[in-house]
Amino acid sequence: MRSSSHVLPLGVLTALLLSQVCSGIKWLALSHVPASLHINQTQHCKLMPGMVSSQAQLCRSNLELMQTIIQAAREVKKTCQKTFSDMRWNCSSIDIPVDTPKYRPDLDRGTREAAFVYALSAATISHTIAQACTSGDLRLCSCGPIPAEIPEPGYRWGGCGDNLHYGLIMGSKFSDAPMKMKRAGSHANKLMHLHNSEVGRQVLREALVMKCKCHGVSGSCSIRTCWRGLQDLREIAMDLKTKYLSATKVVHRPMGTRKQLVPKDIDIRPVRENELVYLQSSPDFCAKNDKQGSAGTQGRQCNKTSSGSDSCDLMCCGRGYNPYTEKLVERCHCKYHWCCYVTCKKCERIVERYVCK
C-alpha cells in the first residue's frame, strides 16, 4: 500500500494550481510544495505550479530532479530575503500566497530587483543540482571531474567535487525555458532576463574553489587531499547584491540588423557580460504601493546606531520610528565538566528595538 506522504492531496494541488504566475521565474512557486511530498509519478509533473511545457517535459523524464528543483526554489526565497534584510526592498515579493495569481510588479517589470532575482534563481538552481550530485541525491550524476592541472607538491586531487558542469546544463535548461518560449512577454524583457540569468551562472562558476582536507601524523598536514567545491550560496548572493547595487539601466534599440540591449546613458558600448541590467527604474519602496510592487517599510525593524541602509533614518524614509522592548532568554555562565558535557544557566536581558512609523 502506497504511503499517503507520496501522493499529492487534492487540496494541496488545488492551492498550487492557483499559484500560477506570469513571469519567467514562476517556477519559484514550487517553493510552496510541502517538504513531505515526493514527486514520484509522471502525472505529478503537470500538476506542479509555475512550470511551462518544456519544464514539465524535463520533469517527466527526470522525476528525481524535481525534488532538487523544489529545494532550489525554497533556497532562492530564503537566501534572497536574508541578503536584503537590511534594505527597504527585502525580497518580500517572492513570498507570495499560493492563491495569488502573479508576483508583485517589482518582479513582473524589468527592475533591478527582478534582475537580482533572475540571477540568484539561475545560480541557485545550478548550485543545488551540482551539490545534489555530490551528495548522491541524483542517480544520473556523480562527483565532478578531477581537475586536469597537476597539483602542487603536498597536494593531491581526491574527495568528491561538486558537479558544476551537470548543474549548469540541467539548471539552465530548466530555468531559461520560459524565456525561450514565443509567448514569453516582450523581447526586451526576455533579453534582460536571459542576460541576468547568465550573470548569475557566471558568478557561480567563479565560486568553484579548491577545498582541501589535511592528512598526517598528529595533524601535521603533510599531505592535503583537495577537490573543487562551491562556495556557500549566501556568499554568491552577496556577490550578486554588489552587482545589483551597480546595475546598469539599458534600453532596447536597433544595433545592426536586430534590436539589442544597450546602456541607456553610455550606449556607445555594449552591455558587459558580468553586469546586471534593468529596463525600468524602481520605486523608493518607502510607502506601500501595490501598483508599483512596493510593500513599504512601515513596521520594519531598523537599527538606530547604524549609518547604513538598515539605519532608522534610511529604512523609515524620514518618518521616524517607535521604540519597544524585548526580553531575551540566553544561555549564560556555561561550565565545562570533565568528561564531557557542558552545563549552562538561563539569563534574561531586556533589549530595545525600533520599528518604522
From TrEMBL:
UniProt biased composition (Polar residues): 292-310
Name of a matching Pfam family: wnt
Signal peptide span: 1-24
CDD domains: Wnt_Wnt11 (cd19343)
UniProt entry tagged with the keyword Disulfide bond: yes
Principal localisation: secreted
Subcellular localization, as worded in the UniProt entry: Secreted, Extracellular space, Extracellular matrix
Xref: InterPro entries: Wnt, Wnt_C, Wnt_CS
Keyword Nucleotide-binding in record: no
Any GO BP annotation: canonical Wnt signaling pathway
Region (Disordered): 290-310
GO terms for cellular component: extracellular space
Gene Ontology MF terms in the entry: cytokine activity; frizzled binding
Keywords for the protein's UniProt record, in alphabetical order: Developmental protein, Disulfide bond, Extracellular matrix, Glycoprotein, Lipoprotein, Secreted, Signal, Wnt signaling pathway
Function (record text): Ligand for members of the frizzled family of seven transmembrane receptors.
Family per record: Belongs to the Wnt family.
UniProt name for this protein: Protein Wnt
Lineage: Eukaryota, Metazoa, Chordata, Craniata, Vertebrata
Gene designation per UniProt: wnt11
